[in-house]
């Protein structure tokens, strides 16, 4: 699957990048992780810390899947509001999901603090804006719901927004405890750290076929074989080419990074900004003075159109940035189109699948993919090391979405 068209900002920020060999011959391990993106890297780090012998393989160079397209916003709030999660899944599961996202934010911070290479992690606040007057009530309701379950949130009026930013919106939620990161550097930094703890990483090594035995999985690559007691499929959106999930769907999304700007002081606290419209516009700044923005999701265009769409939609994104921040030196430096996966019910897919014995899947589909990858890595590390984790059931690949009794 072609995951990205155009060029993304992040790979040029890591010099030199860490390189890993191609697998040749036969090896054994406790846990094979297929996919060296955010989900695979976080799992490798956590499993290696528990003393398990983990092997990571990636058919590309590591970090060059969708993780390289991410804008690196880390937020506990989701595309689906807490209010909506409670409606769909019931109070217990809806609130637990938001608690897990908040916990994952802390786990990301703790994990990143142990890394040798700084992946540009910076704590941030978020501004979630009502895109129109019709969404004012939605944010008011969400404000009360979040407060009710002890999430730190403020409701900002139009007046307050326009005293802090050079734009106006009907209202907004202002939350603390979020962060930004360089996602490509984070993947590399995690894998570097995991490999120092004994994980083996192989790139340009594709899983072409697996055989599932009673207590071993045999994974074949073009030049090697891996015998693993357990396997984590962290193959991102390409998991849909391995097994199709009825609850998931893929679209195209667009993003740009501007050239470094002289003055971003009108951007209050360099907050992460997003909105209630769907698909939503989202924006952040970078430590080297750029604005990165994304959105404008649509059906995946034909392959020969994707690079052109990246350029055209990039220009629209730049206009949208200018509507919010009318800066004189706004210009596009990078523009990209990328496949983006979501689930119909808004929860990621994490856990085993009946047709794949001794295997687990990480499908962190949705705008909060990094936070979902953290949740997944944490749950699967428990399960693989024999620790019961009741949260896995929330994200079951075979769930039917019956709300839990209140
Ligand atoms: C434009 C855009 C913006 C985004 N912005 C954000 C954001 O701001 N914040 C956020 O949290 N999330 C964001 N996301 C989502 C985020 O990028 C993803 O959730 C996350 O990176 C997925 O990580 P992953 O490890 O699951 O997938 P990937 O990074 O795609 O990693 C999977 C890896 O598996 C490998 N692979 C696949 N098949 C095989 C095989 N057969 N054998 C070996 N290797 C294989 C691939 O080469 C790939 O490297 C964004 C996504 C896009 C597209």
Counted up, domains total 2
Annotated CATH homologous superfamily of the largest domain: FAD/NAD(P)-binding domain
Task: Quickly name the level 1 CATH class of the largest domain.
Answer: Alpha Beta
Reading the helices and strands in chain order gives EEHEEHHEHEHEHEEEEHEEEEHEEEH
Q: Ligands bound here?
A: flavin-adenine dinucleotide
Main attributes?
D-Amino Acid Oxidase, Chain A, domain 2; FAD/NAD(P)-binding domain; 8-stranded mixed β-sheet; single chain; 2 domains; 9 helices; binds flavin-adenine dinucleotide
Can you walk me through this structure?
It contains nine helices and 18 strands. The protein is of the alpha/beta class and 406 residues long. The protein folds into two domains: 180 residues, FAD/NAD(P)-binding domain (3-Layer(bba) Sandwich), CATH 3.50.50; 155 residues, D-Amino Acid Oxidase, Chain A, domain 2. The chain starts with a strand and ends in a 22-residue tail after the last helix. The protein is globular and about 65 Å long. The structure holds flavin-adenine dinucleotide (FAD). The site of flavin-adenine dinucleotide (FAD) has 39 residues, from helix 1, strand 3, strand 12, strand 16 and helix 9.
């Amino acid at each position: 699957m072609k995951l990205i068209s155009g060029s993304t900002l992040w790979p040029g920020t890591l010099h030199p990048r860490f390189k890993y060999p191609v697998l040749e011959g036969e090896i054994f391990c406790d846990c094979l992780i297929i996919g060296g993106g955010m989900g695979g890297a976080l799992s490798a780090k956590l499993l290696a810390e528990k003393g398990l012998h983990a092997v990571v393989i990636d058919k590309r160079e590591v970090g060059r899947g969708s993780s390289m397209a991410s804008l690196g916003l880390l937020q506990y709030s989701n595309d689906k509001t807490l209010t909506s999660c409670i409606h769909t899944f019931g109070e217990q599961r809806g609130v637990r999901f938001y608690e897990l996202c908040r916990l994952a934010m802390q786990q990301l911070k703790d994990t990143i603090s142990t890394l040798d290479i700084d992946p540009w992690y910076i704590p941030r606040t978020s501004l979630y804006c009502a895109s129109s007057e019709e969404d004012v009530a939605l944010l008011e309701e969400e404000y009360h719901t979040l407060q009710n379950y002890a999430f730190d949130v403020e409701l900002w009026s139009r007046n307050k927004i326009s005293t802090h930013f050079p734009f106006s919106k009907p209202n907004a939620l202002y939350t603390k405890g979020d962060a930004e990161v360089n996602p490509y550097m984070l993947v590399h930094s995690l894998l570097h750290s995991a490999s120092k703890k004994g994980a083996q990483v192989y790139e340009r090594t594709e899983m072409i076929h697996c055989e599932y035995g009673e207590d071993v999985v045999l994974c074949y690559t073009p030049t090697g074989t891996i015998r693993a007691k357990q396997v984590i499929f962290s193959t991102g959106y390409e998991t849909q080419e391995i097994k199709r999930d009825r609850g998931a769907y893929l679209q195209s999304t667009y993003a740009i990074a501007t050239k470094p700007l002289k003055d971003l002081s009108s951007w209050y606290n360099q907050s992460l900004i997003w909105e209630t419209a769907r698909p939503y516009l989202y924006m952040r700044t970078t430590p080297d003075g750029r604005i990165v923005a994304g959105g404008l999701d649509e059906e995946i265009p034909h392959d020969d159109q994707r690079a052109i769409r990246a350029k055209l939609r990039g220009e629209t994104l730049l206009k949208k940035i200018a509507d919010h921040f009318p800066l004189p030196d706004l210009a596009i430096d990078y523009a990209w189109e990328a496949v983006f996966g979501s689930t119909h019910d808004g929860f990621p897919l994490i856990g085993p699948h009946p047709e794949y014995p001794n295997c687990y899947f990480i499908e962190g589909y949705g705008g909060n993919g990094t936070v979902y990858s953290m949740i997944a890595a944490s749950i699967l590390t428990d399960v693989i090391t024999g620790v019961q984790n009741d949260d896995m059931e929330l994200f079951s690949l075979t769930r039917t979405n019956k709300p839990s009794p209140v």
